Amino acid sequence: ISVGNKPKWPLQSSYVSTIGDRITGSKFLENVLEGKRKFTDPESVRTLKVIKQLAKLKAFNEDINSIDEVQNQDYFTQGKSAMIMTTSTANARLRIDSGQGKNIGIALFPKIDGGKGNPLVSPGVIQYGVGMNNNLKGKRKQAAEEFLKYFYSKELYEKQALKGIPVPINVNLPDNKDNKLITELFQLTNHDIAPVYDSVISPEVKASLENGLQAIITGGKSPEEVARDMQKIVDKEL
């Protein structure tokens, strides 16, 4: 399994978000931020232990912390790794633009024994939006409102969906051979959405987790130490 963790977010955003949800369930992060649960809880620490276990098994590439997500995708398309876990935005590049769609399959992350999470759930977040200046008046305000109507229109959402971009509404994709790979992606991820860690936790907790994951990979810190570091920050924020 190749990972491009140089920018630090891939292990946190893709792996921990998914593994954590499989183990703790989708309400865990919300409960942590409300002070009802802690990152030091055994279930949460188990999530970090999975990362340590995979590293110990040498399931990851040795240069995990020195290549980025684009280089990682290149590793995969060049046959240097058997699998990767990435965002849906990479689906088009990997399976359509590369011309290797027939040779590349996709699957949801499997169920984890004893975990509380729904194995059909995929962590996801809409990463874009538009705000309008409330001081606009006259023709400028009218033009901005027209743009907003277009930006949030079904027409644009359908175009985005055809590119493999997650959208916040249900859309009907045309049934043709050109979008079978995108249709497959949407069918797999259409059950429910779990929170992505860096869309919920504070920047300080995010940085602590990401630095901690790199330390777990290199053996510099234990999962328990990383969990304690994160919880200390949360305790100060509550």
Topology:
Elements (H helix, E strand, L loop, with lengths): L8 H16 L3 H6 L8 H15 L12 H9 L13 H7 L24 E2 L14 H14 L2 H9 L17 H9 L4 E2 L8 H16 L4 H15 L1
Parallel strand pairs: 1-2
Helix pairs in contact: 1-3, 3-9, 3-10, 9-10
Q: Could you please describe the fold and organization of this structure?
A:
The two termini are 37 Å apart. The chain contains ten helices and two strands, in the order H-H-H-H-H-E-H-H-H-E-H-H. The protein has a two-stranded parallel sheet with strand order 1-2. The radius of gyration is 20 Å and the shape is globular. Helices cover 49% and strands 2% of the residues. By secondary structure, the chain is mainly alpha-helical.
Question: Would you count the extended β strands for me?
Answer: 2
Question: How would you classify the quaternary structure?
Answer: single chain
Radius of gyration: 20 Å
Strand arrangement in the largest pleated sheet = 1-2
